[in-house]
Amino acid sequence: MAAPHPEEPSGMYHQEETQRKTQDMTERLPGNALGFPEELAQATGERKFSSKEPKSGLSRAMTGLIEGIEKFDSPGKGRGLRVTKAFKVGELLFSSPPYSYVLSVEERGNYCEFCFTRKEGLARCGKCKKAFYCNAKCQKGDWAMHKLECSAMNAFGENWCPSDTTRLVARILAKKVGLNMKKKVFLNCFNQVLFFNNNMSNVLIPNQKMMKERCVSEKMLLIEELQSHLEDEDNEKRERTDTDIAALHRFYPKHLELPDHKDLLTLYSQVACNGFTIEDDELSHIGTAVYPDVALINHSCLPSVIVTYNGTSAEVRAVQDMKPGDEVLISYIDLLYPTDDRNNRLRECYYFTCDCLECKTKSKDKAKLKIRKQSDPVEPHVVDNMIRYARNTVREFRALKHSLEKMGAVFDDSNVYMLHMMYQAMGVCIYMQDADGAIRYGEKILKPYSKLYPPYSLNVSSMYLKMGRIYINMDRNSEGTSALKKAMAIMEVAHGKNHPFLKDLRKEIGQKQLIISSARITTPVRPTPALQCTTTGGLRLFEVSSMVLVCLLTD
């Protein structure tokens, strides 16, 4: 079913159209209105304030406040966030809508482009036939951003291939122009308030800082204030960025007036260092977004909070009890790996080295690099060669079975390189529809995962989800529901008890418990089924495609 296609405005989006909308909307506003018209919010891609937000244009979004949180200079780290009141484990510190976001091209047809709802029967855009929406309301809400791509996808056909990063940068540039338009409307509205309102005692006069183009995702930090590491990038990264910029010029000339090359390099660097991957309950990549306020949170290998996603919004929840003055800290990387590997990744992607307590003490490194006891001691260079091989294998999968047998004779099951190889092997078993093999590897992985990852880790909950659904697919419903309940216990803290993921998971568990109850009355004998391929909900892990070994098993 095709959704009705909004009529595309003629002319340049950023000049004549912007000026006309600004003038028309200003003329229609009453003299005492400080709020922004709904039409303007749609034109800029800006979501309306929720019912809990003040309706005034001088809202909390413009005063730079998040209740219980403050910005401060973190020693040795620069800007950061800390709490001004106590938070318990599982408590929500704050949530933030994205400044800008984009659904991954690979997920089109599975999720709504606007609200990131996953469901069957999505309606496609009537013009490009590539974007999918829940309904006309979602399509209308997304039009300000989708219009950047809709005509171009038709014009270029199969040759339309900008990266997700380039698509996100294009949306950020469009959003900035929209907020400039909103600023002009606000100033006109405010001038009318000054003229018509005789009692000025309750009117807050906006200063220059407040009048910067600020939206609800910039309560603490403006988009242009994001950290850039352009000066630290090597030639390889710079060449990739130049390729992306060329694609931006090629695929987005109609609706965007692009800044100069240096400014684009800076923006791409800001996105690379501050972008967030939006993930589903099994940590599969759905899309990419920028959350300026969330980007203020510094890294630690002993994080105090975790970031999860509800639709397109980021939610920050405590995974440790926090007292006033404690810094808000997240992990930028996978914490499974030993200290040297973690810091290599941090230097490569974020240009710093972590000095948290775990990095100083390396308390878990011994378990993470554990070697089996041998009758003949293994030479250090043999171990070094195996570690080097394992690191390379993470990037390029080769000769799995033979390698596992060889490494398994030396590395303990808790050794992180052995764990990664077994995770790869689990993916191969799923691809080959070998359910028994997938369970065998998964059971070996789960116990070390639970010990080596910090409490309430999404890596652990996602593994319980995968295992639970594999068990259920094999009619091992008791084991399946047990694993799903363990996942749910973690997710209730990480996502919040009312998150849609939890609602779906409770329903899934309830259905399986009914099956278990029925089986106690009558237990038919069935052959063990093979793993089934599905693309319509349930376990996305079973999707059989050439991307399984790449997407499912990335570090």
How would you portray this structure in words?
- Helices cover 46% and strands 10% of the residues.
- With 555 residues, it is mainly alpha-helical.
- Among the domains are: 98-190 and 214-290, Annexin V, domain 1, CATH 1.10.220.160; 370-434, Tetratricopeptide repeat domain (Serine Threonine Protein Phosphatase 5, Tetratricopeptide repeat, Alpha Horseshoe); 453-518, Tetratricopeptide repeat domain (Serine Threonine Protein Phosphatase 5, Tetratricopeptide repeat), CATH 1.25.40.10.
- The strands form five sheets. It has a three-stranded mixed beta sheet. A three-stranded antiparallel beta sheet has the order 4-12-11, with no helix packed on it.
- Strand 8 (275-279) and strand 9 (285-290) form a beta hairpin.
- Mean pLDDT is 79; it is low at 6-41, 47-63, 397-401 and 522-555.
- Keywords: Metal-binding, Methyltransferase, S-adenosyl-L-methionine, Transferase, Zinc, Zinc-finger.
- Residues 1-56 are annotated as: Disordered.
- This is [histone H3]-lysine(4) N-trimethyltransferase.
Describe the structure concisely for a colleague.
With 555 residues, this protein is mainly alpha-helical. The protein has 19 helices and 13 strands. It has helices at 16-28, 38-44, 60-63, 136-156, 164-196, 235-251, 261-274, 292-295, 339-350, 357-361, 365-368, 380-395, 400-408, 416-431, 435-452, 458-473, 477-494, 500-521, 548-552, and strands at residues 2-3, 69-74, 78-83, 92-96, 100-103, 123-125, 132-133, 275-279, 285-290, 298-299, 305-310, 313-318, 329-330.
